[in-house]
Structure formats: C-alpha cells, structure tokens
Design goal:
- By secondary structure, this protein is of the alpha/beta class.
- The chain has helices at residues 14-26, 44-52, 71-83, 100-133, 148-156, 161-168, 172-184, and strands at residues 2-8, 31-36, 58-61, 87-90, 95-96.
- The protein is elongated, with a radius of gyration of 23 Å.
C-alpha cells in the first residue's frame, strides 16, 4: 500500500498542503496523513503514519524537508521504516529506498539538506547581527509588559499569579518578572 505524508509549517500554508495532497494522490497513495505543524513540534500525523505502515508498504513524501528536520532524524525514520520492511519514496528527488542506490542517495541528500539549513540559519544570524549594529533590529515587542497595569490590578483584587497569567494569556514567569522589576524600583 502507498501511504502519503504531507506537512506544512504553518496554518497559512494551505496552498502548499493542497499541492502536496494532490501530488500524493496522483502517484496513487491510498491513505494520506497530513498536518500543519513545525518540524520541531509534535507531529502526530507522522507518528500515526509510521504506526500504520506495514511490511511491503511504501511511505511517500513530496519533499525530504517535509519528513525530517535533520540527518539524524531522517536516519531514525528510515531505521524505523526498515525495521518494519517499509520503503520510502521522495517524489521531488525521484528517490526510492527500495534499492541500495536509493538508500545512499537519501543519506547524501539528507546531509546536504541539513548543511543548507545550517547555512540559512547562519545567514539569518548574521543578518540580525548586522541589523542590530545598524539600529534597525528591535526584536519582538514585549507583550507581557504592555499588560503590567492589568497584572497589578488583578493581583490587587486577590487573584493568584496563575489565575492572572491564564486570564491575560501571559506566562507566570512574566508576572514574577514584573513583580521583581517593580520591587527593584524602590
């Protein structure tokens, strides 16, 4: 059985998910698992797909980066699939782990993909450092500090720090930080 897995990082990437879905259906996937979550987040659909596949099945993805976040993670997935005697196909690379060449290419391409990701992150860090040096990068605007008056009012009304955090959708840690900053002003 051909089993497809599709993933996008954010909910806004509806077109990307739809394109993956269509490509997987076009190659004959009888069952599809899809999700919209970061590659580093919890990936329930991937877990479900991995649990579902049986000996002789093939797990199909449109791109390697939709499946694994690193060479190590890719290795873990491939090992788990091999233990179940399940193949892996990556459509955009024409890659199939059903043969030795496919397995070799998967490892090489996985290493290249990880290298590219690390280079992208390095360029991003350099860009942020340059923007900071030029005074153009301010970072994310603090959200909890803008609620400091509400925090103080709710605490004065007798609510616990946890209740205040839940009501204002901020972390308890932020509340403790605000209290500490207020105390240090005196």
């Amino acid at each position: 059985m051909l089993v497809g897995y599709a993933r996008t990082s954010t909910l806004e990437q509806v077109a990307g998910l739809e394109a993956q879905r269509e490509a997987l259906k076009a190659v004959g996937c009888e069952r599809l698992y899809e999700e919209q979550t970061s590659s580093v987040g919890v990936r329930e659909a991937l877990k479900a797909a991995m649990d579902y596949v049986r000996e002789g099945d093939t797990l199909i993805v449109t791109k390697l980066d939709r499946l694994a976040r690193s060479v190590r993670h890719l290795g873990e997935i491939v090992d788990a699939l091999e233990a179940k005697k399940v193949g892996l196909r990556v459509l955009d690379l024409g890659l199939d782990t059903g043969n030795a060449t496919g397995k070799l290419m998967l490892n090489v391409l996985g290493a290249v993909a990880q290298f590219e990701r690390e280079m992208m992150l390095e360029r991003q860090r350099e860009g942020i450092a340059k923007a900071k040096a030029e005074g153009k990068y301010k970072g994310r605007r603090p959200t909890a500090k803008s609620k400091a008056c509400d925090v103080r009012a709710l605490l004065a009304d007798g609510l616990t720090k946890r209740e205040v955090a839940q009501r204002l959708c901020i972390s308890e840690r932020s509340i403790f930080r605000m209290i500490k900053e207020k105390e240090s002003q005196f």
